[in-house]
Amino acid sequence: MTSQHVVLVTGASGDIGRETVRILLEELGASVVATDIVLGAALDGHQKKYPGRLEVVIGDIVDPTISEKSVALAVQKFGKLTGVCLNAGVFGPGYPIDDAPVDKWEQAFRINVLSHLHTLKYALPELRKTKGRITSTTSAAGAEALFKRWGFYGVSKAAVGFLVKQVALEERENGVTAIGISPGLCDTQMVAGLLKGNQDGWGEKEAAKYHDFVSKIELTSPTVAGNAYAQAVTKADPGLSGLLVEYDDPRLPIAEHLKRKSAAVDYTKASAEAGK
Ligand SMILES: NC(=O)c1ccc[n+]([C@@H]2O[C@H](COP(=O)([O-])OP(=O)(O)OC[C@H]3O[C@@H](n4cnc5c(N)ncnc54)[C@H](O)[C@@H]3O)[C@@H](O)[C@H]2O)c1
């Protein structure tokens, strides 16, 4: 039986990615093409649990052939592509601007930004046929400068946000919807790495301030974030195209039990209090 929704998820072995894939498979009856540079244990498990509804492509998202292969697999195995979650990303080099190793910025920019262009190049012709949806994983760090040394990450996420608006502008008449969704401060490997202070250019001193910041904020669980992406990529109102929102924006289709109970976070205030 063919699924109503056929979704490509990048960064699918990561914490948010694996939950997005799980919810698509388990709760939304979708078929999924999942891609990542590594095969995580959860993704491996999903593959065994949902034979025939999950295809996995392992490779570096910087390589355009990974996107080409992933889109082609969706069409070949499941007959169409109805959605894409552009989720793969790295924190990247955490240096002050004048210390920034340019080659590291370039390489990380390929992952966080240019890979989206590759994926969209291959996905858009298929998404036009199905009036499909795209979610991009944006960040509060792409809207405001929150911390010293976050130049690469912030610039890359600002670019991702701009790309959402540009895709919305260009594709509205073709019926394709693009939404940027920030997962809040989400309890994932990326945040764990920052807390440990073992990221490139981001050591123990930086980690101490980050601890202070994180302690003021209720972390989003990967399940809650994954739910936002899975629901949005299958059901979001096309009228939302071009919007950049947080995972619990009331305009998104979110299951009631997963809605945030606490007040929205002021990240700028929290980072200022932590001393940036
Ligand atoms: N965790 C947060 O608080 C937070 C906040 C805002 C935005 N985000 C964004 O959420 C997305 C998912 O990150 P996460 O927090 O789940 O972290 P994560 O590290 O668990 O997941 C990131 C995934 O991207 C994959 N990836 C990295 N480089 C790749 C490459 N070159 N090719 C293919 N795959 C690659 C990793 O293998 C990993 O599985 C990222 O875009 C991140 O920037 C996270």
Quick recap:
It comes from Capronia epimyces CBS 606.96. The chain has helices spanning about 15-25, 40-50, 65-80, 100-130, 150-170, 190-195, 205-215, 220-235, 265-275; strands spanning about 5-10, 30-35, 55-60, 85, 135, 175-180, 245.
How would you characterize this protein structure?
With about 280 residues, this protein is an alpha/beta fold. The protein has a single domain (about 5-255, about 265-270), classed as Rossmann fold (3-Layer(aba) Sandwich). It has nine helices and seven strands; from the N terminus they run E-H-E-H-E-H-E-H-E-H-E-H-H-H-E-H. It has helices at about 15-25, 40-50, 65-80, 100-130, 150-170, 190-195, 205-215, 220-235, 265-275, and strands at about 5-10, 30-35, 55-60, 85, 135, 175-180, 245. Strands 3-2-1-4-5-6-7 form a seven-stranded parallel beta sheet, with helices on both faces. Strand 1 (about 5-10), helix 1 (about 15-25) and strand 2 (about 30-35) form a beta-alpha-beta unit. Helix 1 packs across helix 8 (about 220-235). The longest helix is centred in the middle third of the chain and has 29 residues, at about 100-130. The chain is globular and about 55 Å long. The mean pLDDT is about 95. Nicotinamide-adenine-dinucleotide (NAD) binds next to helix 1 and helix 6. Belongs to the short-chain dehydrogenases/reductases (SDR) family. This is NAD(P)-binding protein. One of its GO terms (molecular function) is oxidoreductase activity, acting on NAD(P)H, oxygen as acceptor. It comes from Capronia epimyces CBS 606.96. It holds the Pfam family adh_short.
